[in-house]
Structures are given as C-alpha cells and as structure tokens.
Write a structure and sequence with these properties.
The chain has 375 residues and is an alpha/beta fold. It has 14 helices and 13 strands. The strands form two sheets. The chain has a seven-stranded parallel sheet with strand order 3-2-1-4-5-6-7, with helices on both faces. A six-stranded parallel sheet has the order 10-9-8-11-12-13, with helices on both faces. Strand 9, helix 9 and strand 10 form a beta-alpha-beta unit.
Length: 375
C-alpha cells in the first residue's frame, strides 16, 4: 500500500498520526506544506519526505510540484491531513492533472476547518471544491459530519478519531503524582490568543477570582503573543499570584503538567476536539473548556467538566471558583475522565481503527482496478 500524505509535517499531530502506520511495511510518502522543516519532521522513520520548495514559490508552482510527485510515485491514495493548507494545495494539484491521473483522495478535517472556515465566504467555495473532490472523509467530531455533507461531500465517512491519533494512556497516567486531583495546587491556562484562542479572557477571569487562589501556581503555557505575556505579568504583579509562562515545552512535558494540575482551562471560539482538553481528561486535571470544541462528545457539563462561554470572563471566573472549592466534583471528574480516555483514547484502541480505515480505502482502490480490467 502506497500513501502520499500532504500535510503540515512540522505538526506533532501529523507526526503522531503517521507514526501509527510505521512498521506495517507500507510505502509512506509526505509532501510538506511548509518550506522549513523541523528536525522532528526530517527524522520521521520509514517515510519518504519530498521537498515542497520555499514558501516564496507561487501557489500554482507549489501545486505543480505536488502534481509531479503524484505522477512519479503513483500512490494508491493521497491523504490531506487538514484542509486550509493541505486540502487546498491537493485540490490545486488535482486541477492540474489529467482526468484519471489523480488517486483516490482522503481528507482529514482538523480543528476549525469546517466549523468556522466553512461559514466564511472566502473559504466556503474552496472547502466545497475539496469536499466534492474527495472520496473519504476523516474527522474527530460527529458534529462535523453533517457540515461535510452540506459542503458537498458524497463519499464514505471513516471512523471518528482524534486527529493526533491515540495515546499510551496508562503509561502517561503513571506520571501523575500520587494522591487525588483535589490535592493539586496548579492551574493551567492554554495561552493561545488569536482569531480563535481567548487566553486574555482566561487571564481576566483569573484576576476576577484571585482571592480564591492563594497558594496556587498559575501556568500559562503556549503563551507566544506579547499581549498574553504582558497581561500575565501584570496579573502576577497586581494580585500577588504566582504566574509562570514557560517559553517552550516539549509535548510530553505539557502532558506531564496536566498530571500535576487541579484545573486546566482552554478557551476558543472554534476548534475540533481540543488535544489539551483530552490530555487534561487523561491526566486527571479538571477541564474548564469552551463547548465550541465539541467537548460534549467526551464530557458532561457540571459532572466531568465545566463548559464556559469563551468570551465571558465572569462565567469563566465562576467556573474556576467552583473547581477550586469543590473537591468532590474534581475528584469524581478525574475518575470518570481517566476511565473514558482509557477506553476511547488508548493507542491500542485508536491504531487498529486508523489501520482499518486505510485498508477500507485500499479495498476500494483494488475493486476499482478490478472493475476497469474487466471492461
């Protein structure tokens, strides 16, 4: 089986997804959408990494390079991991190739690809072209399946799984310190502030409930923007709270932090299933999360998480107060969430589903070839 991935090769989610297929004897290729590749991307074992060229290349020329790779390696199918970059580029390459020269196409929906961008007039027609052109669709939220259908997708929906693949849940949970979640004295805030992220709302909420947080470490991770870093420093100066902003954390260190946190806050106006949310669940941290990340498919509001409006700091502050005051709630949630992720997120559960989806797609390729040979 020969697969060509068009993907953000530097993404840890791409790397974790492809790692699920290594060791199977399949012929794996990656065409990156980035111009500068990280050492981690270049060191992915058992794959052929193609050069997409510098970002300064005109879009059409980059698409021509992808089309040329398709013609040379002749994959059984092409898999676009994400739509806004990988999907659009694959569609442009498809337009270049002669009819019949383009392989069976699998498209993965990441994050806000359909839920947000599908509502924007600049993106809607491009998304519809991608969805009409592919034969298989992979997503991590049941929420997105009708959105794909309304966007013109008429093919087969493959299993709904997190786009980062599975985790070795039991091994990671062993990193948690002994004792209940209620004994932990750390609050995590995802530091993204962007068109979707709302870290500044979280910082304002922490300021509003600072009187309830003496003795807590506040860790703002992935705080890349100057506005977030300034707001976090002012929060510490004005309230006396202990606030940390680690510059860079490897993915495994971020997961380990979740295992030391009582509360994990993630706020955004749009997302797929947030991986930081899943990691909080897995490691026993109590999630306070915006429901725009289809978290209702994994947790229950008021029982195993608290769902909050990402633009309402007062609501977020009230959720924080409740989470630091209610030991029974956070300990009960930890038991539920650790069990849920053990059943649904474990690598040994997810990997066979992922392998099975490619085997299903390959069977379609094989059947199509057989039908052509009989004509």
């Amino acid at each position: 089986m020969k697969i060509l991935f068009v993907a953000m090769a530097n993404s840890v989610h791409t790397q974790r997804w492809i790692s699920q297929l290594q060791g199977l004897g399949w012929d794996l290729h990656v065409f990156p959408v980035e111009d500068e590749l990280s050492p981690e991307a270049r060191q992915l074992p058992s794959i052929t990494l193609h050069e997409g060229g510098p970002q300064s290349l005109p879009w059409r020329e980059r698409a021509r390079r992808l089309a040329a790779v398709i013609q040379v390696i002749r994959p059984d199918f092409i898999h676009s991991l994400e739509i806004q970059h990988a999907g659009y580029l694959t569609q442009a390459a498809r337009d270049i190739l002669e009819p019949g020269a383009f392989p069976v196409w699998i498209v993965s929906n990441w994050g806000s690809d359909l839920f947000l961008f599908g509502r924007l007039k600049e993106h809607r027609p491009r998304i519809e072209a991608v969805m009409r052109g592919c034969q298989f669709y992979v997503c991590e939220c049941d929420r997105d399946i009708p959105l794909a259908r309304s966007g013109g997708f008429a093919g087969d929906v493959l299993p709904v799984v997190p786009m980062g693949g599975g985790y070795r849940v039991r091994e990671l949970q062993a990193l948690c310190p002994p004792g209940p979640t209620s004994a932990r004295r750390m609050i995590l805030l995802r530091g993204y502030q962007s068109w979707a992220g709302r870290a500044l709302v979280g910082l304002k909420a922490l300021r509003m409930c600072a009187d309830a947080l003496p003795g807590y470490r506040i860790v703002v991770y992935l705080a890349g923007g100057q506005d977030v870093r300034i707001a976090a420093e002012l929060l510490a100066n004005d309230t006396g709270l202990h606030v940390e902003m680690p510059r860079f954390l490897p993915h495994n260190k971020m997961i380990a932090l979740q295992g030391r946190a009582r509360v994990s806050i993630g706020l955004s106006i749009s997302d797929g299933i947030s991986h930081s949310f899943l990691e909080a669940m897995m490691m026993g941290a109590f999630p306070i999360q915006s429901p725009t990340a289809c978290v209702d498919e994994w947790a229950t509001d008021g029982e195993s998480a608290l769902f909050v409006d990402p633009d309402d700091p007062a609501q977020v502050a009230e959720a924080i107060r409740r989470a630091v005051a209610d030991d029974a709630m956070v300990d009960g949630a930890a038991a539920i969430n650790m069990r849920t992720t053990g059943e649904r997120l474990e690598y040994s559960v997810i990997q066979p589903q992922v392998i099975g989806m490619y085997e299903r797609a390959y069977a379609r390729v094989r059947d199509a070839k057989s039908a052509r040979s009989q004509v």
